[in-house]
Task: inverse folding
């Protein structure tokens, strides 16, 4: 029973193959369907595409012909589906430029413009400008005779293409001559070979506009963002200077930074001409902070605390030099209300960031590399700020209250030096001041708070502790009554 079943299946496969071979031959023998609205409406879109695109279609002939450059452009422009739909609706005429016209004769700049992804619409309009939604043979009388007026034909791009003939009866398409008329003839279309590429006016205007815009509004190249190896954060570039705004530093200051780069000498008696204009220099220093960017909080404090700015100007006028360790805006924003609530806290904080020496990044880094740890005097006597070398830079302070040299040499004029740091510095606080003398930790909550105890009171407090310990030692030795300080 298995043999008859196998024979029936084999007979069915043979009949199916024979039917599949006969149907294409019958379709090839049938005449082309008319492109009437009724015929188009009776058949669906899928049926129209199937009838228009087959192995004998003009699109397949274009892809397999000698016009390979044009076929590649059609594929890059994603126009295969649009051309299939056009072929399915009726016959088409394609004007194909020769490969040499697209390889060597085409302007390289214009070719690069067409191949840019953002100019895909321009490339599509250019290629559709070479396709007519009708069938035009060379002998069909579509081209006018020599000397006759040209005729306009609508292309798939929506623009008109002029057909004419010259004195030698050579067929012209626009400004290009037809070198191979009727190069490929298929039931659904015809391909004519032309000598050059046809460029519609809209694509030419897009190219001219893009080239003019690139020549006029050239954008300077920007490098990759820089990451600070210490903080692992992006370095903020300087804000752009508006058009017409004054430069960050006056040109005169850049050309003539001052009478002398060395620290200015103190003025002698009865020599008023030796005084420097310290107030103007402090004003320039504050203006530089504002224009540099990132130090607006410090500049605002200096402007509001007129007594502090006046004191700095007076010191510079008398011949002193200053190095300001300037915390940036992020560091100033981390200050708490408790740290700024006590009277005189802003002044004390800024006085601790002012060193009565002229130091630059190079001089401070060389010092910490040579001596390891350097202690600089500050205007908040007798407190000192400690500097050491860390991670290839200068680190100020201790532990969590430390700060790195973040923006070196913001302002240097020989008398005032501004070095940007990334944290606010506070002088170290003794354990007795933190615990209030009773061992309680309630007073140690604001660890970086500006101490309210002055330098004189702290020295007396240390002296009293030492005398108490000495008197106890003398009591053990039986000599305590000899010292009046132990009575």
Result:
């Amino acid at each position: 029973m298995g043999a008859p079943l196998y024979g029936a299946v084999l007979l069915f496969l043979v009949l199916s193959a024979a039917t599949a071979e006969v149907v294409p031959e019958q379709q090839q023998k049938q005449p082309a369907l008319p492109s009437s609205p009724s015929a188009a409406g009776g058949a669906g879109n899928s049926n129209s595409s199937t009838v228009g695109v087959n192995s004998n279609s003009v699109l397949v002939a274009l892809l397999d012909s000698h016009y390979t450059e044009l076929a590649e452009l059609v594929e890059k422009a994603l126009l295969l589906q649009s051309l299939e739909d056009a072929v399915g609706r009726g016959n088409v005429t394609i004007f194909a430029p020769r490969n040499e016209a697209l390889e060597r004769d085409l302007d390289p700049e214009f070719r690069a413009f067409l191949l840019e992804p953002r100019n895909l619409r321009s490339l599509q309009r250019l290629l559709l400008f070479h396709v007519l939604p009708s069938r035009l043979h060379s002998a069909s009388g579509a081209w006018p005779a020599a000397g006759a007026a040209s005729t306009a034909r609508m292309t798939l791009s929506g623009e008109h293409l002029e057909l004419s003939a010259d004195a030698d009866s050579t067929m012209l398409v626009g400004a290009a001559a037809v070198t191979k008329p009727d190069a490929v003839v298929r039931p659904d279309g015809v391909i004519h070979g032309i000598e050059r590429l046809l460029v519609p006016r809209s694509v030419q205007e897009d190219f001219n506009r893009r080239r003019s815009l690139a020549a006029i509004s050239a954008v300077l190249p920007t490098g990759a963002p820089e990451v600070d190896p210490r903080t692992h954060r992006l370095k903020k570039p300087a804000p752009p200077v508006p058009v017409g705004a004054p430069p960050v530093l006056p040109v005169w200051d850049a050309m003539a930074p001052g009478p002398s780069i060395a620290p200015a000498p103190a003025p002698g008696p009865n020599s008023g001409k030796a005084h420097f204009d310290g107030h103007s220099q402090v004003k320039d220093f504050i203006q530089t902070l504002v224009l540099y960017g990132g130090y607006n909080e410090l500049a605002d404090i200096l402007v509001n605390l007129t007594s502090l700015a006046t004191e700095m100007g007076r010191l510079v006028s008398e011949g002193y030099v200053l190095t300001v360790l300037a915390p940036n805006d992020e560091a100033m924003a981390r200050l708490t209300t408790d740290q700024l609530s006590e009277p005189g806290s802003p002044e004390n904080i800024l006085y601790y960031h002012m060193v009565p020496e002229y130091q630059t990044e190079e001089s401070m880094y060389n010092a910490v590399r040579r001596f390891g740890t350097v202690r600089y005097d500050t205007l908040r006597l007798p407190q000192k700020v400690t500097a050491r070398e860390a991670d290839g830079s200068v680190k100020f302070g201790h532990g969590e209250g430390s700060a790195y040299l973040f923006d070196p040499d913001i302002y240097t004029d020989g008398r005032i030096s501004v070095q940007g740091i990334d944290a606010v510095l506070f002088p170290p606080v003794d354990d007795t001041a933190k615990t209030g003398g009773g061992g309680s930790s309630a007073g140690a909550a604001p660890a970086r708070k500006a101490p309210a105890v002055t330098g004189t009171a702290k020295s007396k407090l240390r002296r009293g502790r030492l005398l108490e310990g000495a008197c106890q030692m003398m009591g053990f030795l039986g000599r305590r009554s000899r010292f009046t300080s132990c009575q």
